[in-house]
Please model this.
Amino acid sequence: MKIAFVINKSWNIYNFRLSLIKALQALGHEIIAIAPQDEYSEKLENEGCKFIPIHVASRGLNPLQDYKLYLALIVIFKNERPDAILSYTIKPNIYGAFAAKKLNIPIICNVTGLGTVFIRKNPFYKIAHLLYKIAFLYPQKVYFQNIDDYSLFIKLGLVNKNKAEIVPGSGVDLLKFIPSNKNIAKPLSFLLVSRILQDKGIKEFIEAIRIIRSKDIKATFGLLGSIEEKNHSGISRQMISEWVDEGLITYLGFTDKTVKYYQDADCIVLPSYREGMPKSLLEAMAVGKPIITTNVAGCRDLVENGENGLLCEPKNSVSLAVAIETICNLDVQKLAQMGNKSREMVLNTYDEKFVINKYITTLNQLKH
Model:
């Protein structure tokens, strides 16, 4: 089969979908990667994908830009004639489904998260509902990454329950993300791995650190991720520099080689406002780390409170500080037990092989 992947970033395909691509290639399938051009586009070509650049506006709903995306997808699909389309993220899901329907090509959509349009309930909220409701009439399958998003879409009538299914995020490579032999030693080190956006709870993390500092609790804090100042939720480089100068955090820059950073930390934090299934927490758990995250969709799925980590309230720096302080006060043996529990949970539920097998099964059904 010729299979097209449509996503909002080449980075996203390379970092989240490459294992699925390699598995499909091993079965003899031809892969087309359709996404905006970035430094990962060439890497996709080096992995044997045919790369086709496309513009996906990342902000808001601009009718003209979105219609251009729809037309561009029709042209690409008509020229390439894929046997199946796999789409991810909001606009590729919606306009990919419309274009696939136009050309009668099977499409499998994956709701990787609901984005700020659902978090903030801005003026585009109702428009997004309508677009989803129409677009999701057409896919053969719609995957969701957590029970909250799955239940919400069914409750709102945005998808037929018969074609909706939950997958464990994008899974995690358990051969790559492995525990290290590092001994836990105090003071503890906490690490937040994320795109540096307000919606990821970055400012709450900083305020929580200030609270911890005011109590003279010894701990260190790191921030690893891409600065995206142009994003409507972005945080400026200047602001991050001020936090560094204040002695609150160490900014570690951006890399897709994150294993060592997880291994060197004692606890991973993600105070996000909402997620599909946070890859950073899955990777941290695979490495055998306790986690702290918010009691919101996507994040709470990964925590057995007190067993492998702690939940805090979203948009609440005091609640986050309490969780951090609680971890700091645990003995080393308990922290090791929590890390072991994290690894066990990933082994049982979030191995990327589970996700890959779901896709292979669905694609095989399309042939019949």
Summary: The chain has 15 helices and 13 strands. The chain has two domains: 2-171+351-366, 188-350. Residues 332-350 form the longest helix (19 residues). The CA atoms of residues 177 and 287 lie 5 Å apart.
